[in-house]
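Hi D.,

Good news: the full-assembly prediction came through. Inputs first.
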Amino acid sequence: AQKITQTQPGMFVQEKEAVTLDCTYDTSDPSYGLFWYKQPSSGEMIFLIYQGSYDQQNATEGRYSLNFQKARKSANLVISASQLGDSAMYFCAMREFASKIIFGSGTRLSIRP
Amino acid sequence: GAGVSQSPRYKVAKRGQDVALRCDPISGHVSLFWYQQALGQGPEFLTYFQNEAQLDKSGLPSDRFFAERPEGSVSTLKIQRTQQEDSAVYLCASSLGSLDINPDTQYFGPGTRLTVL
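Then the structure:
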């Protein structure tokens, strides 16, 4: 069965610093996808970045990059040069082939000015 | 429309009442998903539609929960005889393709916050 684990309930980071949000997963399916979503206080889930299990390179989207270590089954999100607007809940999620998405429990990121 | 919309944004119900939550997906999106998000938790899958067909309802917590998408666009999640444990945010998401396509990113609506007194 697929499983997602986020071990950091909350993090505080100084503005302009880089931050890494941890995510580990478990699956026996060789074909899967990993997602990161941001959920600000308004409640809407905002898609940030995607990594496929067969992708050779780590995904990047602007200030977001995904540190994909397949052998360790980890998919950490790296946010470079953090901004005050980055304060939110962040969810790691996984989907096996033709299956539903499951989400981790989330990490609350707070950016200090 | 530009994104997924949901209505109402907030709903307060007395225990035992029936409620109906509406989701308008992004135009042209084939797949539609409903999730339940308890306070401080990640979303939990409820059900999935591909067009008008409900292909997976394994996450519905009881037979009091019912979802439909009769014309393959707008969807309604209905909860009968609401209980206090039904209090949560109900999120709807849509995606362009079907589950066998990766990444087929899901785009979420703002959610409906249901409070059952």
